[in-house]
Amino acid sequence: MRKLDWRIQTGLLWGLMTTIAVGQTPTYSIEAAAVNGIPIPGGPTNHVSISQGDVVTAKIFIRNWSPGGEKLRAYQINIDDASYATGEQGVVQPVDFQMNPDKDPNAFIDESDPQWVHHGLPTIPLVDSASLGYRWLSVLLDPNGGPVCAQDGKKFSCGTVKLTPSPNAKGTFTIALVEDPYTTGLITPDNEQVIPIEYERLSVELQPTARWRRMLSSDPPDGAVDARSALRSGATGGPWTTVRLVFNADAGSVKVDDLTVQDGSPTPPRIQKVSSDGSTLTVLFDHPIKSGAWTTITHKNSSISTRIGLFPGDVDGDGKADTRDMLTLLDAVNGGHKLPDYRVDIDGNGTLGPGDVLRLLDVITEARARAKPSGAARNDNEPSRPKSP
Questions:
Q1: 112 in a domain, yes or no?
Q2: 23 pLDDT band (50/70/90 cuts)?
Q3: Residue 113 burial (C-beta neighbours within 10 Å; 0-12, 13-18, 19+)
């Protein structure tokens, strides 16, 4: 029984030592951080699903490079160009492959990135995009000033590359780094190689339905100002209650919970429902947007927003109603610059005409009167931010 206990204890100890050793092995990895500029939730990751036209931003990381307390003077890493064609057909390779080898914006080292392994140190960072397999390297000017890793698994960036599938790409592609420590290695101040080195690959799966959603535009457009100030019953003017959002792919999977609405108040419009038609999503609010404020609709997954505002009388969109708005409106009435109806149909009757000029005059006068302190002398040239009439 004692002999069995000794074997069990020895096995557990060996397993623990093996786990520690594996965890401390210097490791390079290539991981997907974003698709179409949209950060991957929970990323970076070693597996990503995309479709034709998508662009993957992949980062190369290094971790645990100091198993013996070594400082990192220099590193070099290559992509195995043969891995571009590891799917069923076609390739997944750098965007605009070799179009501009002198300065390829799709393969780079971001020296300002706090995750960069040589961040804040005097160094010579280089990216070679002229070869089939892109290559990143960095050499410290002070050979003894390299960083030491805490051996805790924390990842540090070595470089970034943007990858995209060819139109005929199909299957799952395994993007790999060149697994040769003497070709893609880690160098100490004594010009010694840090070995052994482990490598982790990136799996890119082509799925026609996996296209990443990204908001492209809206109607009303971002920054639009509704200047209408309807008075009569049945008038067409009034605050917006509907916004159409256009995405880069079919919007049928976008739900109410994927969007947020804010206007600076505790009770912004709530999304009552959404409906899709191809890549266009129509959003219906439960009440109109707030007067005198900006309303911002954000697509949470892509972190892209559109902002619309209701400022009655603000024809020129500068945030207030004054004589400059009157000049802009008169120019539109006289056939000058053509502006959207929501900018010039001040009285909300559906047409541009003298009635809009008269209504704008009322809005400017009323706004000045409300802004003027009680008993203060009247100054007709004083502009003010419009309020709801």
A1: yes
A2: low
A3: middle
